[in-house]
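thought: fold this chain, then report.
action: predict
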Amino acid sequence: MLTEINFDGIVGPSHNYAGLSLGNLASARNFGKVSAPRAAALQGLAKMRANLDRGLAQGFLLPQRRPDEGWLRQLGTTPEAASPTLRANATSASSMWAANAATVSPAPDTADGRCHLTAANLVTMPHRSHEWRETLAQLQIAFASAQHFALHAPVPAPFGDEGAANHMRLCAGHAAPGIEVFVYGQAGGPFPARQHREASEAVARIHGLSPDRTVFARQSDEAIAAGAFHNDVVAVANERVLFTHELAFADREGFYAELRAKLPEVEIVEVPAAAVSLADAISSYLFNAQLVTLPSGEMALVLPQEARETPSVWQWLEAHVGGNGPIRHLFVHDLRESMANGGGPACLRLRVVADPATIDPRFMATPDKLDLIEALVTRLWPERIAVEGLADPALWRTCVEARAELCVELGLSELNRAEF
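observation:
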């Protein structure tokens, strides 16, 4: 039976605050601070466990090998000889944000009736541009059934594709045909536009989507300039509901009209800028929440603690839940380590609509499996990492060995190949 499954990225042992993401305000603001990789991973695992307890299907993706020595060799260097900047780019744990792993089109939307996944190329940021090979390797194992899935290599450079963080799907129900929304940015302004329209159009063609059920919408320059480096910082969709900030889209009225024409039952929940400023929306990650449908059929938001701590945001949310709006429940989680690097609940997960029975069970979460991962993280993940510590070979060995043991414990030792 087709259902929505959230695949969360397990936070890797090299999680650090090197400030590599231009346009990500939290990443820049926390540059140089001491990170807590063990706490970061445990916070993410606690969110996965809570979603399992809520009756939601939950999967995970594994951390990637860091430092990425293969990438450094392609650049003619090694971790020992690399410049501090290159070394930081090779050591980032940014694959934890699985929303950037791929773009996913479920089987009801595609011409061949299979679920299509295209790995994101992430070419606009050096520290993320080398993730796709191992991302694709994991996807090819998890979704190996050619009867049910089609896997695609990234859109070629120079067209930047950042995956599901700039993609939404609206539908009457997860198993019903949907309207797929691709959100792109426009070059110019103080920060780079990471999602190019050409990349979005290529993914739609590769996935065999009908133009009648596909929408391309431009993110507003104002949102990008305010720090909404991905669309999922200012908008999120689930089934028939679009939850969005008033200033998220360049042509708001035109976008809404196109949605209503293609999916008449769509319900647009717009938060006015007068109630919640863009600054408050972005700092709290109000829209980088997981908007999910519970087994009861009611919708809930899985929010970071920062949303509750931002008065304008919490006031709006309480008023909405207290009224007749479609969002009925608010679940708050401590994800401070991820948030400090610019990634909230929605950044940490990739949504896939599929039959869980068609997916490699090694990537599906269970309470016992989460117990195993938590114990391993507690034992092996570094407690603290300072940015200057990224030059320490002992730290590199710790990170490589910890991740390798996780792969073995989960029965995925094939991911311990040095390169992909």
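thought: worth noting. The longest helix spans residues 37-53.
final: tokens above.
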